Amino acid sequence: MKIMIIGSGGREHAILWKVAQNPKVEKVYCAPGNGCTELEEKCENINISDLDELAKFAKENSVDLTIVGPEVPLVEGIVDKFREKGLRIFGPSKKAAELEGSKAYAKEFMKKYNIKTAGYEVFDDKEKALKYINACNFPVVIKADGLAAGKGVVICESYEQAEETLEDFMIKDRFNGSGKTIVVEEFLKGIEASILAITDGKTIIPFISAKDHKQIFDGNKGPNTGGMGSIAPNPYCTKRVLREFDKDILQPTLKGIQEENLDFKGIVFFGIMINRFGTYLLEYNVRLGDPETQAVLPLMESDLVELIEAALDEKLSDYTIKWKKGFSCCVVAASKGYPGKYETGFEIQGVNKAKNVFGAGVKLEEGTLKTAGGRVLCAWAAEDSLIEATKKAYMRLDEISFDGIYYRTDIGNI
Ligand code: AMP
Ligand code: GLY
What we know:
Number of domains: 4
Distance between the termini: 41 Å
Bound molecules: adenosine monophosphate, glycine
Number of strands: 22
CATH architecture of the largest domain: 2-Layer Sandwich
């Protein structure tokens, strides 16, 4: 079997690591992959990003299954394109991907299907938005409607900050169209968690829960990043929370997917907020999370290829996902300066046997691994307890070095 994975981050390396364990898989193409995926035995990186070219490659090379990592190709309609050509691909259709591609669409969907979420209004006129905000309690949350590479959400503490944000999003058009429409949302206090789930459109099965660590500094301080580490399962996702999640979020989402006739054979990522009033849905993503995947997949006992095939064949109702007992922890090592400006091209030591490491911003130059991005790689471990998993992940990271290596020292401290 030949598999193609679209994307270049730690999430994609984790998917590769997992699917390569299936003995039927003889070859995995990563498009474009990274320096660490290139080191994996069954993998070949291919430098293609154009969707039509990817489909052509899949056809010509008899790729049996394509798995899409990031949201951009999904929102651009890669699944529809591949299906038109008779190619097997795992992910939502372009229309279904709007659950991530448009926050206004996602919020309308949540409202229509009684999914527990923060109150909101949608605006495409700055003055009307400001008038509404003037009557709100602060903080308020302003969200760009479209994709904004994780930078489209601002928690505004004052009217002045809200005005600046709207100017930036709607008038200066910071996100090239993605912020022309905005969502103004009620601010929710609480603890965040991530739950991934797989659906074939008929059945939805949640994975074990996870926790991202978004801020750059210890103690959840400083600006947001693409994620500085993750653990699974999330200790805050108690039985009560999971019950509420199932009733108030998961099942109504499946109902919505069915009633809206969304063609969704893929992953739904639920970003949730837990507080004393219940469990709220903050956002949908339509793909695996990064860095949640790097913690969740090491605990998955079931075969990921079989699971994905079951979803594509609409046979998830017969499937039980098996999980290993215990916890996992993944700690991201970043380049000095990230998420601001940083330099790249530094030699990386200690990774060559890529064991318990997933690469991200890494390139391979004449056999030498070098830094090539903000988040460079992550070290991970899966053990019986969270303390042990965390200790082992940090021990693995201690073996790795490059100029300016930076990581949080409190991943897994709950
Ligand atoms: P989103 O892309 O909608 O998940 O937003 C990104 C981040 O902004 C979330 O992970 C939260 O930390 C924060 N956030 C989003 N919506 C809210 C809200 N209604 N209340 C509080 N924080 C929020
Ligand atoms: N970890 C958040 C995301 O993947 O969007």
